[in-house]
Automatic annotation (TrEMBL):
Keywords: Membrane, Transmembrane, Transmembrane helix. The keyword Membrane applies. InterPro entries: DUF2232. This is DUF2232 domain-containing protein.
Length: 322
């Protein structure tokens, strides 16, 4: 029990320090803030959600005491809560059969929470976090836009030698794309942290479940319907339009990740598979427009079932019965 509490304390302190690094003003602090959920996700996967909950509570109290109550509450809601919940879902499973005597056999007879549903939970959390950060600027669409215009105009004025007004086209462009960038970054950050936490747990031997087949990840069928509805409402104005843009963005990123899973599936059997996958990842990181192609691939798989057809065609023909 003492070791359990010590691990929770270390994880909470590490996450709190990474979050509090923003006060230093260094560029590396932006990376550390993005990785702040990682220690809590790791202990949730390796030592259980209770350990992550204790670590999150410790970190929240540390930040609240050092940086103020609002930042402490914000950390608890934006970092500790999602990290605990996603780590819990990653290890959530139910037995398919009882009475297995062998431990390995018993582990194989567990139905683990589908990775597609975990991805959908990440999209939901990214939507809530993005909407919450925007709503902190104002209670309606006009006040949010005005706050962003003032902030971006001030930033551009500090970066240049001239005074930038709030009606500057650059400010208008930044106000337009900010909800999209925030939603996409939240979605990507949560997904990356969960993958890193699971990978570290697997390497250290603390992942008490088989590594999931990520290439088979697929979103529930109703996700496509939700995307179409959100896309339609994104053309509306006001708060409805802002929330719809956020939902559309996170679901598009989710389908882009599904597109990566499709890419891993359809490249099976290629002689230079590692090279082609590495080239694809390099292109994705260097040219963000390629995410549109990945999203289209994920959407096409959801509609036409590319992976299912590919795997069915790769199966050997049935043996003759006579």
């Amino acid at each position: 029990m003492m070791v359990f509490g010590l691990i929770a304390l270390i994880a909470g302190a590490a996450s709190a320090l990474m979050f509090a690094s923003i006060v230093s003003g260094a560029l590396i602090s932006l990376v550390l803030i993005c990785l702040a959920p990682l220690p809590l996700m790791l202990v949730a996967i390796a030592w259980g959600p209770l350990c992550a909950a204790l670590g999150g509570l410790v970190a929240t109290l540390l930040i609240g005491g050092a940086l103020g109550l609002p930042l402490g509450v914000g950390y608890g809601l934006a970092i500790a809560g999602p990290a605990w919940w996603l780590g819990h879902l990653a290890m959530l499973g139910r037995p398919l059969a009882d009475g297995a005597s062998d431990s390995d056999a018993a582990r194989l007879q567990v139905e683990w929470y589908p990775t597609g549903r975990i991805l959908l939970w990440i999209a939901a959390l990214a939507t809530l976090l993005t909407a919450g950060s925007l709503f902190s600027l104002g209670s309606d669409a006009s006040s949010i836009n005005e706050a962003m215009r003032r902030g971006f105009a001030r930033v551009l004025s500090l970066m240049g030698e001239t005074n930038v007004t709030e009606n500057d086209p650059r400010v208008s462009l930044m106000v337009t794309i900010t909800p999209v960038l925030l939603a996409a970054s939240q979605m990507t950050t949560l997904t990356l942290n969960l993958w890193l936490a699971a990978k570290v747990a697997a390497v250290s031997g603390r992942l008490h479940r088989p590594w999931p087949d990520l290439s088979s990840t697929s979103l529930p069928p109703m996700t496509l319907v939700a995307l179409c509805i959100a896309l339609a409402f994104s053309f509306f104005g006001g708060m409805i339009g802002i929330v719809a843009v956020i939902v559309t963005t996170v679901l598009m990123v989710a389908y882009a990740l599904v597109g990566l899973a499709v890419l891993h599936t359809i490249t099976r059997g290629l002689a230079n598979r590692a090279f082609w996958l590495a080239a694809a990842y390099v292109i994705v990181f260097m040219f963000s427009v390629s995410l549109v192609l990945l999203t289209a691939l994920g959407l096409a798989d959801a509609v036409f079932g590319f992976r299912e057809r590919f795997l069915r065609n790769r199966q050997p023909p049935p043996l003759p019965t006579s």
